[in-house]
Design a protein that fits this description.
This protein is of the alpha+beta class. It has a single domain, classed as OB fold (Dihydrolipoamide Acetyltransferase, E2P) (Beta Barrel). The chain has six helices and eleven strands. A six-stranded antiparallel β-sheet has the order 3-4-5-11-10-7. The protein has a three-stranded antiparallel β-sheet with strand order 6-8-9. A two-stranded parallel ribbon has the order 1-2. It starts with a strand and ends with a helix.
Length: about 190
């Protein structure tokens, strides 16, 4: 189930529902983008990514001052020796990184949004790129499509029982149990989109 919520309400720990904060844009690679009045964009990974990946051991932040184009590798999330790379939802320059996450990764388990942003980008091509991001009902539809694609992928590479797939069961931290080949497949399929 997917629903839109107020950003402050996304702190519901480990709910089986996928939550999309109202007013926040979602990229096809499951980054969220929150745009302020000056065109600065806070970026993080969304609830779909958080729930699929599960436990996070470290975040590889972008360098301050990095000039980035939409679709280029921006940051990575690590689990053990494995990584999920997230691509920039917008073009611009990285102006700030949220180093507080280094000391409080557990906060992301409750909500990947609001205060748990990875970096802030001074957007350069926002007018042209914002139309490629999802918001509101379009974001809900996008999540539902990716949930269906996830069920198909699980069936194809046999990462879940037939009963779980038939019942539509999704588990928080599904990627934790995957072998390296399946991890890479999930990562490429859902997060490393350009």
């Amino acid at each position: 189930k997917v629903h839109i919520t107020h950003p402050k309400e996304t702190t519901e720990a480990k709910t089986p529902e996928f939550l999309i904060p109202g007013g926040v844009f979602i990229s096809e690679g499951h980054c969220w983008a929150n745009i302020n009045e000056e065109g600065m964009v806070k970026v993080g990974f969304d609830d779909f990514a958080r729930k699929l990946i599960g436990k996070i051991d470290a975040i590889e932040f972008p360098n301050l001052g990095l000039s980035i184009k939409k679709g280029q590798s921006l940051f990575a999330v690590k689990q053990g020796n494995r990584r999920v790379i997230f691509n920039a939802p917008v073009s611009g320059e990285v102006k700030e990184i949220n180093k507080l996450l280094n000391t409080d990764l557990e906060s992301i388990e409750f909500s990947p949004c609001e205060d748990n942003w990875i970096c802030q980008i001074d957007a350069e091509e926002l007018d042209g790129e914002v139309s490629q991001l999802k918001i509101g009902k379009a974001a809900v539809t996008f999540y539902q499509e990716d949930i269906e694609r996830l069920q198909t992928l699980k069936k194809k590479i046999k990462t879940a029982s037939e009963e779980d797939i038939a019942n539509g069961h999704l588990y928080i931290g599904e990627m934790e149990k995957l072998d390296d080949v399946s991890w890479k497949r999930y990562s490429e399929e859902f997060f490393e989109k350009r």
